[in-house]
Specification:
It contains 14 helices and four strands. It has about 300 residues and is mainly alpha-helical. It has two domains: about 5-155 and about 265-295, 3-Layer(aba) Sandwich (Rossmann fold); about 180-250, Orthogonal Bundle (Tyrosyl-Transfer RNA Synthetase). The protein has a two-stranded parallel ribbon. The longest helix has 29 residues, at about 265-295.
Length: about 300
């Protein structure tokens, strides 16, 4: 998304309505919303080049969510993998969680998105958005809602967490970028690895530590690390320490920006407000056409 700002029109928002499906304390939701905005800005989202806002600052998205719900077959939502996975992980089986893909469709369709950057687990949600858009377009006649495509980066198709499952704060298996060095190292030490003696070669293809390291390495770096695994003589503790170095160094500049923004949160608030003004103009114009087509007066 940061790179796309150079050549494309990027729409990036903090999905605080979506977050309500797993964060139930108001104070914590508000705190984490601002933390997420601070993280986006620290990592390179530029509010001058992108439309960057808070989902809840544009009420039209909930109106579109309701309208689209009328064109969403129940069976379509029942087939959603994400809902089943989250229920299996212990999240409450609420209507909000069940209808999550419809709100995501509204997020996408309200702004005429051409491409949506997603990981493996979200591909189906974009496909659902396309299905809903087709049903709406067929019902009202014409092609009012643009059909979005997925944009998937192969190397980040699925980013693994410390337990080997998909990394997610909701699942409690994430590695936080913006923590102190000791906290980062403690978290990385929790990564589950195979119990292989120090001197023996180690398999790297499915090793969580290797796959996380590979996110930060070029082809030469990955080949060098693979040879270290295959040679033996190093334990997983060495590879975990290497991963800690990679993460710490890669995000060094972002951490400095993050700490500065944390000291002055007004800058993040101002960036979100400016982005919301831009997003609302687009959303209001689009909703006027959608209301007319749906017969909402």
């Amino acid at each position: 998304m940061v790179k796309a700002q150079e050549t494309e029109e990027v729409f990036a928002f903090i999905a605080n309505y979506h977050a309500m499906t797993s964060v139930f304390e108001g104070d914590r939701l508000a705190e984490q919303t601002l933390e997420a905005a601070t993280a986006f800005l620290s990592l390179g989202i530029d509010p001058k080049r992108s439309v960057f806002w808070l989902q809840s600052a544009v009420p039209e998205v909930l109106e579109l969510y309701w309208i689209l719900s009328q064109y969403t077959p129940l069976g379509l939502l029942e087939r959603a993998h994400s809902y089943k996975d989250k229920i299996a992980k212990g999240l409450s089986a609420s209507h909000g969680l069940f209808s999550y893909p419809v709100l995501m469709a509204a997020d996408i369709l309200l702004y005429d998105a051409d491409a949506v950057p997603v990981g493996k687990d979200q591909i189906q949600h974009v496909e659902i958005a396309r299905d809903i858009a087709i049903k709406f377009n067929n019902a009202v006649g014409g092609e009012l809602l643009r059909l979005p495509d997925c944009r998937v980066e192969e190397r980040t198709l699925t980013v693994l967490g410390v337990d080997g499952a998909k990394m997610s704060k909701s699942y409690g298996n994430a590695i936080d970028i913006f923590v102190d060095r000791k906290t980062l190292e403690r978290r990385i030490k929790q990564i589950v690895t195979a119990p292989i003696p120090l001197e023996e070669p180690k398999e790297w293809e499915s090793d969580v530590v290797y796959r996380l390291c590979a996110l930060f390495l070029d082809d030469e770096g990955k080949t060098t690390l693979q040879k270290r695994y295959e040679k033996g003589g190093e334990g997983h503790g060495r590879f975990k320490a290497y991963l800690a170095d990679l993460i710490w160094n890669y995000f060094a500049e972002a951490r400095i920006k993050y700490e500065a923004l944390k000291r002055d949160p007004s800058k993040a608030v101002e960036a979100l407000a400016a982005g919301a003004d831009k997003a609302r103009l687009i959303a209001k114009a689009k909703m006027a056409k959608i209301r007319s087509a749906a017969g909402v007066i």
